[in-house]
Known about the structure:
This protein is an alpha/beta fold and 383 residues long. The protein is 35% helix and 21% strand. The protein has helices at residues 71-93, 106-116, 121-134, 179-193, 215-229, 250-258, 273-278, 285-297, 316-328, 349-363, and strands spanning 12-17, 20-25, 31-35, 40-45, 48-52, 58-61, 66-68, 100-104, 150-152, 155-156, 175-176, 203-205, 236-240, 261-269, 301-308, 337-342, 370-373. Helix 1 (71-93) packs across helix 3 and helix 3 (121-134) packs antiparallel against helix 4 (179-193). The protein starts with 11 loop residues before the first strand and ends in a 10-residue tail after the last strand.
Amino acid sequence: MTTPAPAPDVRLRVRADAHGVVVEEASDGAYLRCDAEGHWTAWHRAGGMLRRALDGRVHALGAAVARPLADAEAGAVHDAAARSAATFAAALDAPVARDVDVVGDLDLARALLRRAATHDAAWGREAEARARAVYPEGIPILPPHRYRDLVVTPARGCPNAQCTFCAFYRDRPFEVLPPEAFDAHLAALAALLGRAVDAYDGVFFGSASAASIPDAVLLDRLARTRAAFGPRRRGVATFLDADHAPRRTPARWARLVEAGLGDVTVGLETGLASLRASVRKSADVARFVAAVAAAKGAGVRIAVCVLVGLGGAAVADAHRAATVAAVASMPLDARDLVYLSPLEGALSDDAVAAETAAWRAALAPATPARASHYPAEGFVART
């Protein structure tokens, strides 16, 4: 009996479809992902993972945080990613069966990699400038379960803009874009992404609280977005500042849900009224709970954000007890989330782990919602 020859080693693994191309180098773990326009979006090399964000910036991804690169360093990354794409494209021009494993459209993979090979530092600067025009205040933060959303900004700034702990929107007044400016924003976003827009299965309305926009205006912006980009499988999500938003009934929320808005992230931070007041949020916890209940009455998915470490050790127990009680009074279900976000600089890494464990233990019997870690400093808006 003849012994079968061992399967040949595969040097390159390539996956290509309408959403883009991914190339992996089996021998050293190199990885390049490009979107449907041939724009590189993620690149892994010996020094670690790099990602090009939706707002055009390049980030080095570490264990817990994402570090935005300075212009010169980002330019060098664009050049190196372009060379990597050229190398992969050359390998696919004359593929050897034992060296290349292709899933999907080989011709498309070649075309996208050749296009990516032209996207050098000069292209990167131009692309970032176009992204800044679309997102003039950047994309400071999204909730983790919506990181891969297409970000649309019908408003800028924050209706509160004075929370003492906020590193993202403090002192940025709330401004709703007028219809003409919003239409221009949608058109510029479509031009920025091109065919790559089809990879996004959800939309996030920024910035700090698009749910603070009056109903008639918000319904109009939802309709304009749907007309520009079509319906998305995961619908539209947004932040809600429950202290600075219309007091909606379930029926009013239902009209928004029918228009596509089905997912809201709210910043409770703490259920301890005195602590909320000390960080310049409303002390009216009951109003916050009522706002969540009204949204839930229309079937909206809720994510409640809590700041672990807020107020320090002196109020840690009271903060946790009052917050768990507030969350327990909300009609949350298993689809919902409670985000545990460590207040940056308030706790050591060991203390964060211990406090997060204590919060999880306290929340587990109080709510069917799932508690999840939310490291805000690790955010990168995905492309």
